[in-house]
Structures are given as C-alpha cells and as structure tokens.
Amino acid sequence: MLNRSSKIWLIAKRELRDQLRDWRMLTPMLILALGFPFFMNEVSYRTINFINQFGGPPIIVDRLVPASIFIIGFFPVTVALVIALEAFVGEKERGTIEPLLSSPLNSKDLYLGKLLAGASTPILASYLSITVYLILVSRQQLQMPPIGIIAQLFALTTAHGILMISAAIIVSIQSTSIKSANLMASFIVVPVAILMQSEAGMLFWEGDDARTLWFIVIGIFVLSTLLIRLGMAHFHREYLLGREIDELNIRQLSKSFWQAFKGKAISVRNWYSITVRESLQRLRTPLLVTTVLAIAAFAVGYQWTITNVPSMLERASSQNVTNFTELLKKSPDLQTLGRDISVTYLFRHNVRTMVIILILGIVSFSVLGMFIYLINAALIGGVLGVFQIIGLSPLNLFLYGILPHGIFELPALLLASATVLRLGIMLVTPQLGKSMGDIFIELLADWAKVFIGLVVPLLAVAAMVEVYVTPTLLLSILK
Q1: What is the predicted pLDDT for the residue at 175?
Q2: One domain for residues 359 and 227
Q3: Which of 181, 213, 242 is the last residue of a domain?
Q4: pTM for the whole structure
Q5: Could you write out the DSSP letters of every residue in 348-359?
C-alpha cells in the first residue's frame, strides 16, 4: 500500500499535470511571471531618477526595490489563485468529482494533495518572477537589497501564497459553482493586500533591521496552519456530492441563533441558571488558558519596562522630554476625571474593545483577538513598571488604581477573550454531523450569552467605579 506522502503526491501530480497541459492557464501565468518584472524594473529605475533629480528622501530610494519585490511576488499568486478556487468545485462542475471521491484515498490525502498542487504553481511562479527582477536590478544602477531582506521577502511571499491558497481551498469546498468561488476570491485578495501594505510600511520604517517581519512570517504560517486544519475538519465527501445550491435563509439563521441563545430557558432567571451556566462550564479550559496568558503578558510588560525604559529616558533629547511633558499636561486630571471622562464613554470604549476582539478573533481563528487581549495585559504591567521606575509603589497602584474597577473589568475581559479563544479552537475541530455554518452560529450564540449576560453588566459597573471611586483612591496615595 502507498504511504501517506505517496498518496498526497499522487493527487498533486494529477493536478499539476492538468495545469501544465492547459495552455489557457499556463500562458497568462508565464507572461505575468516573466513580463511583469521588466515593467516593475522600468518603473523603479524611472522613479529613482525622478527622486534623485528633485532631491527626495534617500530612504525611498533604498527601499524601493524591496517594496517592488512585495508587489512582484504578490501578482502571480493572485492570478493563479483560480487553480485553488476551482480545486473541488471545478471537479464538480466538470462531472469528475464522483470518481475522485470514490477512490480509496481518504479525505485528508485528497485535501492535502489538492492543497499541494494549488500552492506549488503560484509560489513557484512568484519565485521565478522575483528572480527575474533581481537579475534585472543587478544589471542596472539600482541598489540590491541585503541578503537578509531578500530572505525575508521570499519567506513573506511563501507565507502569503500558502495563506491565500489555504483560504481558496476552503472557498472551493464551500462553494457550489466556480462563479461563486471566483466572487469570493476578493475576500482573500483584499485582506492580504492590506496586510502587505502594513508590511511594506514596516520595511520602510525599520530598514535593513526589519526583525518584526520575521514575527509576521511566523504569524502568517500559524494562521495558514489553522486554515488548513479548518479545511480538513469540515471536508466531507457526502457534503460535496449532495449540495446543489446555497440559499441565504435569514429567517432560518435567526431562528437557529435564537434557539442556541435561549436554550431551554423560559425566563431570565432560568436563562442565567441554565443556559449561561452551561456556557460557563464549557469555558473552564479556555478561562484557565487566558488567565495564564494574561499573567505571562503582564510579567513580560512589567519586566520589559523596568529593563528598557530607563535607558530610553537617558537617550531622550530635551525636545522629546518637552513633548512628553506637554502630552502629560493634556491628560485628564484625577480630581476632575468624572467631568472629563464620562461613565458612558468608558463603557462604550470597553464594549467596543470586546467586540473588536471578537471580530479579529473570527477572521483569524482567535489569533488576532488573543493578540489584542495580551496587549491589554502587557500594558497593565508596563504602567506598573513605570511607577516602579519613578519611585512609587507598583503594589499601591494596583491596589488603589486598578483593583477597584478591575474586580469587575478584568473578569469581563477574561470571559470575553475565553469565548473568542474557544470559538477559534472549535471551528478547527472536526464535528461530525454539523456544517461549518451550524458550528459558527452555535459558537456565536455562546459568545452572545456570555457577553450580554455577564460581560456587559460587569463593564457597566466597572465604568462607574473607574470614574467615581478609583480616582479618589489613587489620588490619596499619590499625595
């Protein structure tokens, strides 16, 4: 019998053979991969001459070639994305899906084989395009990027390609026609394009020492792994064969959400004692994980502050100190905090933060949502570290400046983040008999139960305490 890698390669080889003999697919890809670098090389050359002629910033000249590599590596993947988009739904429209699904290969082998074939061609086309561009740059009066930056750009191109192809394979599984799959492609290309703009900004800002980009590469690979896991978890052969049309039934979706939200409750008291209680029981492990992560982020923020801030202050210029002083003067006074910041403002701000954590968690399988959560925990540690540096007691700050409203606000943050963490984990966990939509509605209802039933009331009380109680207590120790 064939081992797993041989089975995966068998599917991939079949797909690659079909791709390479289809001239209508191969010709545009080769034209773009080989022709676009010449266009970008001409644009870079003329742009640099224009900047030098009018005395533009040298940093733009130095970073123009790496930024062009970003674009050159991105375009072949977007064009070849159609290969992954029609991986399964294309087989269905051509009538070849039944023989493929009836083969003795298991579902994971089929999925990974399609993924390998769908990712190989676009990524290799991007490599070819970047290589051609670097050869052109080396023959002209353009500054070649350092080898470290080139390695980062190749790694980012690979990460972007795997991320986009992984998402495209999921779209192909969930779609019922090639037309609908192609329309869904914009939800893949646009977010990655926005991500690339941020990465290009980091490259311009950090220069040759752009270490942050390596963390982004790792994060994209983690997100791609979660997408692959999601696709395999919801890949069912019978589902591909049986589905003919997708219908957006708002009434049915609303009914399913309401049933999951209400549960078996017949009153508000019953809802808290049964439905919300069941949701909290399912959050035991996520709550433990989020608590441990919060403590770790708090410790990291505190340690980083007391280690690095003193040296940063020593290197600060007089202008930096003046600007910082002016910024502090504009901050709200503790004695007039109740007039400067209202309870409503704080409450809306905290609720908005929880909703942002949910939205980011949905689009990244909890990764970005947990990132925002950890930043909040690290900021608390950083503030306590600043108090330590200026000679005040961090313990007093915590007891009088954070704990009074934190008794309510921190549990709310933990609960909201734990539900988002569970949402991401459950989405990538196989559950027989349930579609991805059914699972998502149930998880969203679980979040709504905890958010409306517990988080919102806790945030309301926390906002009142933070405005009317915490400033008084904090002012007493600062005096």
Answers
A1: 75
A2: no
A3: 242
A4: 0.74
A5: HHHHHHHHHHHH
